Amino acid sequence: MGRRIEMGFRFDLLVFTLAVLAAPALSDLIISKVDRRIDLTSQIVRITSTLKVENAGSEVVSEVLLSFPEVQAKNLAHLVATTSEGKGKVKSSAVTLPIKVVNPKGMPAALIFYAVSLPKGLGKGDSFTFDVLAVFTHALRPFPEKITQADIQLVVFQDSAHYLTPYIVKVQSLSVKLPDARIESFTKIENTKIQGSEIKYGPYENLPSFSYSPIVAHFESNQPFAVAEELVREIEISHWGNVQITEHYKLVHGGAQSKGEFSRLDFQARPNIRGASAFRNLLARLPPRAHSVYYRDEIGNISTSNLRSDSKKTELLIEPRYPMFGGWKTAFTIGYGLPLKDFLFASEGKRFLNITFGSPMNELIIDNLIVKVVLPEGSTDISVSAPFPIEQSQETKVSHLDIAGRPVAVLQKTNVVPELNQYFQVHYKFNSLSMLREPLMLIVGFFCLFVAGIVCMHVDMSISKSSPSYLARLQWEEVLATIQQVQNIVNRCLTTHDKLEASLRDLSRTGDVQACKATRKSADALLKELSKELKPLLAFLQSSSTAAQILPKVEELVTKEKELQDKLMAKHSTVVDCYEKKTGVRDIESRIALQQQKITALRQEVDNLLDIIDEI
């Protein structure tokens, strides 16, 4: 397998090697000694190089060039050069040296160059020692790219055993620290040895400029490959004494993709075997006096978290709702409050917030980080100071009791690692009297509410009984009451119709003609009485201008009901006569078939008209 991995990189390495071999050397400086240490114990690759440079030329040198392959530089998240003042036991704290991107003439396009500015120029024969830390993301490639739940995760790392530099190197050595002693394969060249989980190359002497000796390591790494595809971090300042932090994470396992089925039973029984490549929790190191901490997602609060705090630190151990295997994603939110006095200060007539930039999560890679600093309403003259380049913009957030909204400083950076979790400052001007704006708004609002209540209690809001609107309303209510009476009468008529139909069914079952005639007689008397009750109601509606809109439908309803009543009586007489003459059932059905069709249609029309009148 190691042979196949090296063959996979061979073509790219050949092209890169030909490019750098054609580059000229810079002869003014030489590197008398370089010790490199590559840390591969997590998903973030950290390369620390200690360089001792000497000026072999006659001119003073004030800069040292650092070179990285272009394919490696695109994953470079952090680069810093430091030196310690003093010697031996009296060394003071490290001093950071300025670094900038440069494009020296005559250098290969396959390399990216950075220039480190020295504290003072090096004269002929002078030397200077400093450390360089380069931090890379996504530099470990899973191989194989897809694994099952039971498989361990293997990754591949590629670099050079020789220090890639435009200067001549007298002596150099390299050590590669792995997370575990289990190594599938690694490149073996001259002066290579392995000690436990560490591979050592060198020392190598008298190397020419741009010397490049490719090496590949294929090893086990089951460390959490937690990658935040996007993190939106909102820092809201309240001058009433609190800084509220809200962090929205979109997290993915950036390791080898999981394939096949997932068994929760196997995972719980043997998590170290049936889930070695997954991570189950993350640790967030919050500021010491963090309070009101919460951890939730779209579903709600997530109870699988543990908070530990003391006077020096606050640690939040969070566990997602499910174990994170390769390629699996989750989204959640962390929030907490901080004391304002620990992070907000005043200087030269302005206030400034001094707080950390990145995520408190351990060993988390952030592909896209957005930090939003929400300032109090009324803040002006806003400026941001950060120790590294960032994209800046401004927007406005409208919250409760705001008038114009709160200004928001938006900071954005890609490819963020824990080393960038440094302090930055947001400076702004704010008038302390503006703090009274919201309390005054509440006081005035409640005062107006109480005044309105008093006015309502002492003012007669009733409508005058002589006003046109009041009279019109009374007329309409009278019309509605009349229409309701008409509907009730029509419904009683329909009930009487149903009784006549029931008497015909009883006649067909029992043959009792006298009982059927008696029912007809009582129904006929009731329908005549209902008809008399309808006449004054219709007369009122016809005389009222308010009922002009609905009157046609009411008249049509009464007409259709009367027609239905006549048809039903005719059918009843026909059936009774046939039974008295002892006519057969089939003959009776044929005689009343046409009448029954008309009765059914009329009944449907009456029901529809009742519904329409209800809607009006």
Automatic annotation (TrEMBL):
Keyword Transmembrane helix annotated: yes
Leader sequence segment: 1-27
Annotated transmembrane regions: 440-459
Coiled-coil annotated spans: 585-612
Protein keywords: Coiled coil, Endoplasmic reticulum, Membrane, Signal, Transmembrane, Transmembrane helix
Subcellular location: Endoplasmic reticulum membrane
GO biological process: protein N-linked glycosylation via asparagine
Claim: Transmembrane is one of the keywords in the record: yes
Pathway(s): Protein modification; protein glycosylation
Family annotation (InterPro entries): Ribophorin_I
Main location: endoplasmic reticulum
GO cellular component entries: oligosaccharyltransferase complex
Subunit structure: Component of the oligosaccharyltransferase (OST) complex.
Biological function: Subunit of the oligosaccharyl transferase (OST) complex that catalyzes the initial transfer of a defined glycan (Glc(3)Man(9)GlcNAc(2) in eukaryotes) from the lipid carrier dolichol-pyrophosphate to an asparagine residue within an Asn-X-Ser/Thr consensus motif in nascent polypeptide chains, the first step in protein N-glycosylation. N-glycosylation occurs cotranslationally and the complex associates with the Sec61 complex at the channel-forming translocon complex that mediates protein translocation across the endoplasmic reticulum (ER). All subunits are required for a maximal enzyme activity.
Entry similarity comment: Belongs to the OST1 family.
Protein known as: Dolichyl-diphosphooligosaccharide--protein glycosyltransferase subunit 1
